[in-house]
Amino acid sequence: MKDLLHTIVANDVLHAKFLNTLSLMENTGARKISSAQSLETVNVTMLKHAAEEHRHAFYLKKQLLKLHPDWCKTYQYTELLAPVASKQYLYKLDIAASRYLRKELNLSHTNLRFAAYLMVTYVIEVRADELYPIYQEVLSTASSRINVKSIILEEQGHLEEMIDQLNRFSPAWEQHVQKLLSIEHDLYAQWVQQIKDDVYVLH
């Protein structure tokens, strides 16, 4: 991934589309968190997390303005890298989590949505904790005006919060989340490959 990011950061058009793609995915995450909320399960951590994910989406949009003020104003396919995979990534993971939890824990309705929120968010934060520091390292090496340091700090905090919530949800949560980590690994690999394909065409 690091080599791919070096190629992206070296090209302003690709870089803007990559930032926009990350913004899309952060925004999708925020919307999924909001859709999982209910009067029975919503808590201050959930509200805080949704708000911060929306802020990340906005922050990334603001960062790409440093590259060009008129690029990537929306999330149209032509303004993204790997648009299909990027838009489907979280939805596919959420569906897989819901199916697994319904089958293994016999959950439904509100309890199912909340459990899926906990486990999917944990898995996403694990990925964010890996991806954003690598991206920041590449940005620093390239002396880029773009930076994602504030996102890194908040994502680390999110991961700690999710672990705390999962410990309270079930003592066996780590056993269940392994299945989702495996599914996410495959989805991420597909996403990276499609990013590579787009970069190859556009570079």
Biggest pleated sheet: none
Query: Quick one: how many beta strands?
Result: 0
Helix content: over 70%
Please give the domain count: 1
Mean pLDDT: 89
Share of residues in strands? under 5%
Oligomeric state? single chain
Shape category: globular
Point out poorly predicted stretches: none
Give the count of helical stretches: 7
First-last Cα distance = 16 Å
Order of helices and strands: HHHHHHH
Give me the Rg, rounded. Answer: 17 Å
Instruction: State the secondary-structure class.
Output: mainly alpha
Q: If you had to describe this structure to a student in words, what would you say it looks like?
A:
The chain has 203 residues and is mainly alpha-helical. The chain has one domain. The protein contains seven helices and no strands. The protein has helices at residues 2-9, 12-36, 44-64, 83-105, 109-141, 149-169, 173-202. Helix 2 packs antiparallel against helix 5, helix 4 runs antiparallel to helix 5 (109-141) and helix 5 crosses helix 7. It is globular and about 50 Å long. The model has no long low-confidence stretch (mean pLDDT 89).
Entry summary:
This protein is an all-alpha fold and 203 residues long.
Topology:
Layout: H1 2-9, H2 12-36, H3 44-64, H4 83-105, H5 109-141, H6 149-169, H7 173-202
Task: Supply the key terms.
203 residues; 79% helix; 7 helices; mainly alpha
